[in-house]
## 1
Amino acid sequence: MSILSEAVQAELAKQAIELPSWAFGNSGTRFKVFATPGTPRDPYEKIADAAQVHRYTALAPTVALHIPWDRVDDYDALKRHAEGLGVELGTINSNTFQDDDYKFGALTHEDAAVRRKAIDHHFECIDIMHATGSRDLKIWLAEGSNYPGQADLRGRQDRLHESLQEIYARLGDDQRLVLEYKFFEPAFYHTDVPDWGTSYAQVAALGEKAMVCLDTGHHAPGTNIEFIVMQLLRLGKLGSFDFNSRFYADDDLIVGAADPFQLFRIVFEVLRGGGLNNPDVAFMLDQCHNVEDKIPGQIRSVLNVQEMTARALLVDREALAAAQRSGDVLEANRIFMDAFYTDVRPALAEWRESRGLPADPMAAFAESGYLAQIAADRVGGVQAGWGA
Amino acid sequence: MSILSEAVQAELAKQAIELPSWAFGNSGTRFKVFATPGTPRDPYEKIADAAQVHRYTALAPTVALHIPWDRVDDYDALKRHAEGLGVELGTINSNTFQDDDYKFGALTHEDAAVRRKAIDHHFECIDIMHATGSRDLKIWLAEGSNYPGQADLRGRQDRLHESLQEIYARLGDDQRLVLEYKFFEPAFYHTDVPDWGTSYAQVAALGEKAMVCLDTGHHAPGTNIEFIVMQLLRLGKLGSFDFNSRFYADDDLIVGAADPFQLFRIVFEVLRGGGLNNPDVAFMLDQCHNVEDKIPGQIRSVLNVQEMTARALLVDREALAAAQRSGDVLEANRIFMDAFYTDVRPALAEWRESRGLPADPMAAFAESGYLAQIAADRVGGVQAGWGA
Amino acid sequence: MSILSEAVQAELAKQAIELPSWAFGNSGTRFKVFATPGTPRDPYEKIADAAQVHRYTALAPTVALHIPWDRVDDYDALKRHAEGLGVELGTINSNTFQDDDYKFGALTHEDAAVRRKAIDHHFECIDIMHATGSRDLKIWLAEGSNYPGQADLRGRQDRLHESLQEIYARLGDDQRLVLEYKFFEPAFYHTDVPDWGTSYAQVAALGEKAMVCLDTGHHAPGTNIEFIVMQLLRLGKLGSFDFNSRFYADDDLIVGAADPFQLFRIVFEVLRGGGLNNPDVAFMLDQCHNVEDKIPGQIRSVLNVQEMTARALLVDREALAAAQRSGDVLEANRIFMDAFYTDVRPALAEWRESRGLPADPMAAFAESGYLAQIAADRVGGVQAGWGA
Amino acid sequence: MSILSEAVQAELAKQAIELPSWAFGNSGTRFKVFATPGTPRDPYEKIADAAQVHRYTALAPTVALHIPWDRVDDYDALKRHAEGLGVELGTINSNTFQDDDYKFGALTHEDAAVRRKAIDHHFECIDIMHATGSRDLKIWLAEGSNYPGQADLRGRQDRLHESLQEIYARLGDDQRLVLEYKFFEPAFYHTDVPDWGTSYAQVAALGEKAMVCLDTGHHAPGTNIEFIVMQLLRLGKLGSFDFNSRFYADDDLIVGAADPFQLFRIVFEVLRGGGLNNPDVAFMLDQCHNVEDKIPGQIRSVLNVQEMTARALLVDREALAAAQRSGDVLEANRIFMDAFYTDVRPALAEWRESRGLPADPMAAFAESGYLAQIAADRVGGVQAGWGA
């Protein structure tokens, strides 16, 4: 009998993790972007790669787009292309950080004309959402300043509110605005949405359809992220996750790679707060594959989330609550760690096979020859990258 | 003519910084508390020492008390004692971290009886506030856990809300509850009020008389504190400051000692947001004098705040706004730095003399012989310390 | 057949982790030290408690002493007491942070008389080492300053060298001096031995019998500790470990509690560099049990080290080296993680039983009734604490 | 009479700060590089821009080159070009991070052929040094890994030693090798030279002509950089500085912009240790001007260093030493801060004029019309950037 009870299996069967189209393009640091053979050259090829992840894992049924990187003439065609490959189009991400006009801000800019342009860009994104059937408009703002005195922090915050209000008003009834926060980078003195508190205050001022996006790499050193998960769920404002991992700053490594135990704690708190497989709380990846292969990097990532979810589901919550109530620190910790240290991989492999999936998706993909195929096929053209 | 205009002088004349009674007792680290001759042995002596700071600076007209450390039989007598020395009693600080019952929490404890005790302690504090005429009840909670799994983060947050609601309901019409947040310590895994967002969410749920207290040493490494100042002022929820400084964690050093430029930026943002000499935004010190003399340590601290306030008032805000509008990064930064680099000390010395104060309060206090006097007088008895 | 090969079992059988006598006394933060029933009142009782850890795990055959906390009249009697309980006396730790004379330094003090006193204290420690048969003199220095300008950084470093030279010269042929470094605390501006580089430079200047002690909690946020392990082993200067864990600063939590994967990486690097079960590289614990029971806290700790050692020994190093050579990032990481995710606990339980030990040492100790016994027996007297 | 004594003026007159050629090209983050009119298109134009900084400040007599970015056919011509503009060529910087072959390392690579290529690149740099008359070969290595297990930390360190030995052996008698360390980025798990200890251990193993380069932005959060300055000067191994500033990671902001007091402490420690205007300790800038104008950004930077040097020279070191000896914490800190808070800018303006320089170099450059001139002249061609 599996260590994964039927109830656990039922939860696992519901899990869905959205992939970012840009994870399949080249990415790197300010020092160098390394190219790899077979890198997609357009949104169609990115979606084809994303579909491979879903094919071997059944975990990644949707793909998020980034505008303008994934702008196409015919979104309906793109949608059909995705569906033909077994996936759907998901969240639409806006981009206000790669236009020269946005050097000193977009939604917060001193100049109303620049703000207009940035707001209109979000209107375009909402139009695309209608075409693609996407629910969420995700906004990450690169805005901020590099030097004390450079910017009027307060004025920018007020303008941010006004700009968001205009965008929010344009949302359809079933659409949401999800506002991401980030500690720093690319701005190095102040960032206009640097922490969950700011994101929360801004979306609370907008209304029910505005939520916070928590990117696991966007916090100050030492931040207890699962506490924020708990708090945002408690406040009813956790809209989505951008999963990745980091040792230092926003390293954008494979989720679970840097601190598996932190991922376990985060997923447990999602579960504890009713956020697991709750459509209001979207799970997404947001990573860079700078030195590793991209498609297997994404497969590894969704499997890491799945494995940690299985471990979190194994926590004996009744026993844990009893130990917590009695102040038995070591016993409560033991119960918690017991689930973390349980090796769920063999049971998950079996379970996958029982559902007609490969026991080892990484190996199955490697054996498929897909990487060699695209390396051969995708010669010529311009490789997509972060920013193209 | 002074570099301090009449308008600047008028602002400076209004400045008031509350002193913490516990700054005059011994303090230290978990490794050692060093004793010093002349350390106060009771609240009366602490207030006498605090009055010295005000005498030489005219900057510190009130003294905050800490209950139970400053519990006395007759608060009216203590009040008259203070007034006789030229100062008044200020904020009342509760303490739920030095009783064995609070090992696993106070306002958040799993056990209703412990929560009751902790809430009742706050009722006592409110009673004392009525006796002393204090406006603010300041709550810093040491609550949290050391090990993952030890505590139910969500349950504790909900219980915190309920406990605070009871305390809030007991406040008089002109009284306020001010909730402090802290990144970590004494809890080493999770803290129940770890960041401004949590404090804000909790006080917003209480009502208008509940505000956030910002302690400048209670943030994650790299946090942009002036941004939080801006945001809390914008949200109308910045109730008070605990000033101190730090290089690493909650070092509780003399304000301005570790990063004077940060103090400048904070005070500027207070000014920008309308919080300077605004009765709704209380300025307080919260420091430990582990290796330096305590009374001169406090004098140095209030002078540091005064000097930075003078510099912040010197910023040419019109020119700054123009440079910001035009995207002239270097010019905006120059205008900002120009005020910071201006040496306001000679002008402040002159201005002090014009008001009948010593030009150099540190020297005047040193010459007064007060330290030698209390060293001689205060022999025997038990020295007050952090925790007594 | 066990997943632990005979070679792995042979390594595990050799493992020895020294316990600190002070872990059995009360400890806490600057805010509060909570007392617990049954806390030892003298070195004899501390050793009795330490012997319990060894009894149930066979992992902790020695106990480190701290002078003056563990000063006794007759070290030979203490030695026999330990041996009677199945353990031996280990490292001697000096203490230069709890005497008023050391407020501004000990081995680095400006005043030669204070340095003399501190050096003489180390001579006393060496004398005790001769009495106890201890090999290592471990020096952790709390020295530093709180304010820029307070201290002459360079002069102190030079005096540190001179003081250490005198102490080093006094060592017996088979004795070693082990110098610990620490990022900060109790000093909050500068610490005289803040990093491995300083400790290394200082011990390298002394000679072959001087080594570095690496405390896993004594680094800046984000520091890659296993890299330092690698480097010190490479330089032949890793003398010992102080194991514990932390989320923030020097939290001194149970080893492996905060970041199990980091512990795995550290132990793997020890193994990779030839430091495992190498007498030159001593494994010790240095933790505080502030809220959890102390004896089971130590049992949990040595088991955590053992479990991680087993996992590190499971890494397929040949396959790993091949993947590294071929630049296969994901495969190398997979091989590494595979060992980490393997649940070694059932195999270790079996192996323990095969050696006449309890399968579950935590449960066996709990059932022994020892805690109730000492709570009943050790009434009256003064409980030992950090600093007594 | 100036507050700057003749002795201070004599020191200031000797100050020289090397400029990096790459500071005049475009730079940015991984998200976006903003272009600016007039950006140099080749090494000749970069040097012309650097000469402007020297012209208005007399502080920047040399320009560092980066190979291959500044590769030219005729280094003698470049040298004469520089001399014609009043400056000289300085340090040669190697680059092993922008070639696809170096994806998994250069001097540390598993493959001997890649190491050969990287070593040969350094031989080329040494050849260029002979042509340009440069003394220093500065090596910053981007090498490391992103995932635990990806790399053999120890093997890489050993190979690093071997590679450096080959390069070192090739140095001319009057040439030096300067090895920079960096906490993280572009590698996100381990970096092969992450800290001063590693750089020190590596250069100490090479010989007298190998030194450490300290980049002020390359440390873990909270690191006391002036302590490292002190230690490296004490060990005789501080070869050069890369000055810049940061709030978070390696932000590469204008030196002194983020924490002016830290810059003051660093310069003071240089002075205290005999490193000021000592030819063995080279002062250089290494910054990115992402949002501000580049030439005035460099002028601002060298002026910041000059102003802090003046302040550091104003410290009353005799009085400071006396206060330190007597344990008078507040007085020692006061003496130290007094120099920091002194406004040296008017005296420096006067002194500049007395030497035939503009009182306000920033204003003088702005009035010169140079920026408009190059914007008009440098149309067409490819703008130089970080990486070109």
Note: The mean pLDDT of chain C is 97.
## 2
Amino acid sequence: MIIHLKSNVNAEKAAQLAEKAKAVCFKRDNYFVLVTSSKVRALDAELEPHADAFYVTSSDIQLAGTEYMPQKRSFVLGKHPIGGEHKNTVMIAGPCSVESEEQIEQSAQLLKKLDISVLRAGCFKPRTSPYTFQGLGEEGLKLLAKMREKYGLKVITEVRDASHVDMVIDYTDIIQIGAKAMYDHGILRRCGKADKPVLLKRGFGTTLQEFVQCAEFVMSGGNENVALCERGIRTFETKTRFTLDLCGVAYLKEYTNLPVILDPSHAMGYRYGVADLTRACLAMGVDGLLIETHPNPMVAQSDAEQQLTHEQFTEMFHSLQPIAQAIGRKVV
Amino acid sequence: MIIHLKSNVNAEKAAQLAEKAKAVCFKRDNYFVLVTSSKVRALDAELEPHADAFYVTSSDIQLAGTEYMPQKRSFVLGKHPIGGEHKNTVMIAGPCSVESEEQIEQSAQLLKKLDISVLRAGCFKPRTSPYTFQGLGEEGLKLLAKMREKYGLKVITEVRDASHVDMVIDYTDIIQIGAKAMYDHGILRRCGKADKPVLLKRGFGTTLQEFVQCAEFVMSGGNENVALCERGIRTFETKTRFTLDLCGVAYLKEYTNLPVILDPSHAMGYRYGVADLTRACLAMGVDGLLIETHPNPMVAQSDAEQQLTHEQFTEMFHSLQPIAQAIGRKVV
Amino acid sequence: MIIHLKSNVNAEKAAQLAEKAKAVCFKRDNYFVLVTSSKVRALDAELEPHADAFYVTSSDIQLAGTEYMPQKRSFVLGKHPIGGEHKNTVMIAGPCSVESEEQIEQSAQLLKKLDISVLRAGCFKPRTSPYTFQGLGEEGLKLLAKMREKYGLKVITEVRDASHVDMVIDYTDIIQIGAKAMYDHGILRRCGKADKPVLLKRGFGTTLQEFVQCAEFVMSGGNENVALCERGIRTFETKTRFTLDLCGVAYLKEYTNLPVILDPSHAMGYRYGVADLTRACLAMGVDGLLIETHPNPMVAQSDAEQQLTHEQFTEMFHSLQPIAQAIGRKVV
Amino acid sequence: MIIHLKSNVNAEKAAQLAEKAKAVCFKRDNYFVLVTSSKVRALDAELEPHADAFYVTSSDIQLAGTEYMPQKRSFVLGKHPIGGEHKNTVMIAGPCSVESEEQIEQSAQLLKKLDISVLRAGCFKPRTSPYTFQGLGEEGLKLLAKMREKYGLKVITEVRDASHVDMVIDYTDIIQIGAKAMYDHGILRRCGKADKPVLLKRGFGTTLQEFVQCAEFVMSGGNENVALCERGIRTFETKTRFTLDLCGVAYLKEYTNLPVILDPSHAMGYRYGVADLTRACLAMGVDGLLIETHPNPMVAQSDAEQQLTHEQFTEMFHSLQPIAQAIGRKVV
């Protein structure tokens, strides 16, 4: 159950009520919000005089659910508002990893040329082997910050684990929580206290229910600006790297109030399918696209097979606006 | 290995050579084609004088593969050519099952009104419980034939098992092999001798490799007019009925020469997501779409949850042509 | 709902009542049984005077479920009774395919030596490629029959599709329905009229619910002697051929009244793991084991990687009885 | 490639060589070990004079692989040596979560009574909803330490994320890395510097290759005492909580040198199947078993469905030793 407390309830009183109700408590605008287990179906007598409104939900998809808030939430992602009544689909592009200043600057220049506003690149790579490139760490974050200054871009980069979450939050404009870190309470709880939007990627072994509930960790910490990112799930099919779950996207659009962003690059794992899939993702009517492109994919230190060349990306990018128009949206 | 025999090799000789080479043999135009295991990498000395050309392939995706034939195959599906240089995306629509003359006639009238040429509906339903509606059988086939006559439509219906494959082939214009029957040698081999195009659905537990190899059973029987239909695979996600595998579609487009058709209705399993998914499927650039729509889904005897109403279908259908145009295709 | 009609209801009357109730009808001993959809929760007034007893079930797992019949069903599999109060675990062994008389005779001799009573081998192979060995067909069935005569063995072999189901039923002692044919109504319905026990393998993409419901097709045809065989499901893990689902076996033991048989050979796909897995399967307390062993696996025409040599099989076989004893069972 | 440096190479020199070779470096006994990418196939000229031995491996399963070290590794888990030539199967038991002193003391007493040496219980629970019980945190760790003192037990508890990894390492005897934290570099790298054995659980969406590579993160940090724990993977089957992958266990036993521990409780998710599965796991011949049991499962704050009562656990426990004997092992 979600309870909106009256605006005259102060922090101390809200905390008391929360403890009594075994509820999570956070402040929104000028009032406190309590969230109990969804199994609580009736408002407690003690809470009643302090409550402005309360909402019963059928599962622990609470703040993120359309049962609670039917209209799509809206916030600014990079430079453009998404969700709500906005019909923007934000293009987010760049290489898998920051590898060098020269490389990331070429990426920044590509975005500038195409009037794309959000640059993506990883600094802390969640590799599955300790014997491969692990990312440039803080050095990479500094290079991203430099590109932001020099080219007027917004940047998004990934937190790998709780040991460096503060550092990433400091440097980035949008916090990315990767598929492998999606259940990380250390990260989720810290992001709940951050004042930057969060892009939460679905774990490749994660159900939609669990995925949205992980967003609830961030939202119930007080940061409700979360976008859900589908990037492929692991199935028996291994000809492609993962299986992009667009049926799941239809579910997220129907049953949650959060913006949805799609990452076809990781799902496919191979350059050849990315353009077709990007167009399909756009036609689903989503709020953002996350595409990997690298100045020279052949020498990329991670995900070499799936990153588009700048030429391939540019050609694909130019094919998108007509599809967006056909469904009443705009790629920004 | 695929071997094109010289046109002066007669049937008897071809059969002899095939037996010797442990090859499958079929006639194409005025010459015979032999197909051995893909493990055969060099042309046998005895075959050499009789061979016009031979093709080595890296797996048993042979006749269907771009290694053998890089250009997309083309044939008429219903009334329109697909594949090859054609940019047609054929809409195939209708209810899950033929339930009554009144019902199927309403479906036929909807198609006529929207100028859609291929009517789908099942007569032999591969239900998973013996205690539910099993389809009208031959009575249903007769009703489909009646609609073909009365409304000038083409029809497609499913073979459930080998016991009635001849009957279905007699009545239908396009033979559908369903997901659960995809490995059925009795059906596959019989369809290899049929002179009607085959729509082969991917089993929901079937890898892409196995899927295309099942098409090889039909093709190596002599009927090369096979279209591959992705309809969702079974994964850990159960909020939706299946998971539509568009990454797999990208693979099929890249590595096979067969037309590809998509069935988002069965993948999704719920009406609410079908329109978005249909648009995404179309944006992938495929040769056909298979959509379930029923005059009154609430009383449908099978798949009641996923069939669009005629109003929903009509609205969705009218949104498709602009997307098709954006990618240089036409919905027919 | 399952309804036991009174024994004075004759065939004609039973058929009338069945049609009215949209029920499947079969004869058991001296009375008829009707099975309607499980959604029927109350006995129809018209049926009431003719019913001896009726059973409401929570899903279409009806005849096979413990809701209807809590005690394990029992019948003779080969030479030994399984299920019920019997604590027998029947060993079924032999090569993947009948390849030649010499080969299958060596297998028969191995079984004779180890006092194993049921010989397995395939004649109609459900291969996924048309360009590989497809089985010896009827010639193979004849060789199996010969081994039965000569060595006093019982034999089990697989039906691939409905086109040869009668032939297989004629020759075999136990009818095997393979994983790929598990949904084949042509086979299932024909087996429902056969008087030989059926070993039904779970499809590798099949849920437990669907699996047991396929057994209902056979049982509701009148042949209630069905054993369920788990042989591995398809998952994201590809280091092994399939994933043996012993959690699923625990479910089948708890919620169904059918004997359970395990096939670790196909699940594993590699010789090295088969012995450990066979011991684990036995320790689950099941009614049978199906193990592939070949006189010379290196030259086997199918499943060469997973068949044990006769030496490996013999060594493994001798390790089983102590485990069986530890859990109060006996390997026969 | 794994390189054993000569014992006269000091830390500074080893670090230099490691940097040059892009290798991970750790000290074992009196010499340093370098591990480069497995793609390095030939020993560098510069390394040659300093190398005692080197080992080429076919994938990044290096320190953990039988290619490098064919014999099973051995270390003490709790009070008993596992792996190597030891035939011990260590029973680890206790509730899902520490809930109160009274509850955990009842668990400790049960273990004492049955002469079981390792008590398991979680303090930082990786719940998927923020609105449920999250564990007692440090308070729970203190209760576990108290039980250790009072009952002479060893304890194992789980690290949820990197924010409390030091605290858990301080309190526990065996460090558990849970399925959802398996990719967490912050945890893995910290555990590589710990001097306590690590039980690494397989992520439910994790391939065997990735799983073992995660163990490599710990091992290449210098802590080679890692046990691999299979606890069920996520598949399409939802009648049971997960699918226990015993085929995968056969693979781990064949291709890695690490002890293997099995957790059937989480795989099954329901009490009714745990006893059968535990016996099957034991019959696989593994080094440990991890079983959930709770003094009163009905009121458990997490995993209420799958925890055995103390009576059920005791009965099951007494059935194990005969099976262990049958395969030449001992449950300790």
Note: Residues 74-331 of chain C form a domain with the TIM Barrel fold (CATH 3.20.20.70).
